Amino acid sequence: AEARAAYAAARPRSAAQHERAREVLPGGNTRSVLIYGPFPTAMTRGQDCRLWDLDGHAYLDLCGEYTAGLFGHSEPRIHRVLHATLEEGINLAAVGQGEERLARLLCGRFPSLAQVRFTNSGTEANLMALAAARAFTGRGTTMVMRGGYHGGVLTFPASGTNAATLPLPFVHAAYNDSDEAARLARAHAGDLAAVVVEPMLGSGGCIPAQPGFLAALRALADETGAVLIFDEVMTSRMSGGGMQARLGITPDMTTLGKYVGGGMSFGAFGGRADIMAQFDTTLPHAGTFNNNVLTMAAGGVAMGEIFTPEAAEALFQRGEALRARLNEIGRQAGVPLGFTGLGSMMTAHFRQPLPDRPYAASPAEEALRELFFFDMLAAGIYLARRGMVALSLPVGEPEMDRFVAAVGEFAESRAALL
Ligand code: PLP
Example GO molecular function term (predicted)? Predict the structure, then answer.
């Protein structure tokens, strides 16, 4: 309560902004993930990996726009191509060269992508991939994972249900439980169109899939004739070709989003040529902004020149090293504070051992999560309210040192509560 009060007292302008916004925006904004009490911090400006809020505080940005902000806020090559593209006119109601360039880059990098189509968000990409799988197989049911997140209408909580989830026939399986997946896949084999899985649960707490679990899903899809879809909207950053390349497990379809459009609105879905061929003929997929020139141009530079496979590998290793340092803090202090994740994505958990499955946090864990968030803000570090960190390319050693120091200070000053 004290940390909450201090947070609110330091942000009168954010508070007032929230009050005004609530009159015309339910919850005060258009993204559920940014609704938290007592009110969210309103940001006004960003530069490289720094942010400034409405009340004048400066932050190190470790939220990284929930992985979409991989390039930071002022990557000069992205700014240059966006300005140049604007000069040529906004959206020309026609095919352009930018979309072929970006499509070729992605198909060259992700093992499962023979062909790809663009959308404006990861949510849309997943919806289109599901549509493609259902049409291709002539079946209706989709296996999803509890704790999985594939977009607002494709949210599958660790426990309970989400009233906003689309009313498609979904079979809910437990993440990282190959036996249950096998049982469910076989029980629904005759109508199983798709199995959709994140190679690491992102919003579900940065819980990596065990490689054996993904291999089992691959085998089950082969056995039942279902289409295996990897949602790599968040995990595509884990190597030049995403987690599928890292693990050597190739799905039938892949969905992408976030940073791949260079920071512009982005989504993509693609996969095997025989599945994607449906869009040549029978399956409709229009969408005014699917090939919008700003995203296509920024994505081409982002993936072609900046986030090369070498850059992806280097970022992965930096993140692994950071997570090891952070986990050392909890171990040394003997407190239940640790980080799960892979590479440049990690989430704080307040339990030991660290989870390898999604879980519903206890009220005590929720309180610690909130305290951690407020303490980090007080230390000038902005991360996702749920305790997720997504490193961006401008985050260097000094910034990581600063975060490690802040987490160390948290473990020490809050030891009695942990
Ligand atoms: N899939 C995953 C794994 C995600 O993490 C997200 C967004 O966080 C989405 C899909 C939805 O993407 P978007 O927010 O662009 O609709």
Answer: pyridoxal phosphate binding
